[in-house]
Amino acid sequence: MHVYPSVRIAIPWNLTVGDYSAMGDRAIVYSLGRISLGARVTVSQGAHLCAGTHDYRDPAMPLLKLPITIEDDAWICAEAFIGPGVRVHQKAIVGARCVAMKDVAAGEIVVGNPARLLRSRA
Fold this sequence. Notes:
Layout (H helix, E strand, L loop, with lengths): L1 E2 L4 E2 L5 E3 L4 E2 L4 E3 L4 E3 L4 E2 L4 E3 L2 E2 L8 E2 L3 E3 L4 E2 L4 E2 L4 E2 L4 E2 L4 E2 L7 E4 L4 E5 L2
Parallel strand pairs: 1-4, 2-5, 3-6, 4-7, 5-8, 6-11, 7-12, 8-13, 11-14, 12-15, 13-16, 15-17
Antiparallel strand pairs: 9-10, 17-18
């Protein structure tokens, strides 16, 4: 595992990282809920993994701690945002500055805000 010194991890004990994974400069790991990175995952510079939100439907706005799972061989590109409760499946790519608020299927490449399918990996 390689973690650049400028990575910010909110609650380290809520983070698990598989073998040969890396987190780049200025990545934000807001691990209010569990965040799991599989093996050989790349979280590029400035990416933001956000495992916390609030229930806007409740006037008290309670905190929700929804897990994020990034499966083996996935790549979260520069400055991408992964929202609470999202699973990025094996070998998927979330493009630069993409906003993924829903699961990304295995081998898909998604781009944009909100994330949309660009193509599948060959």
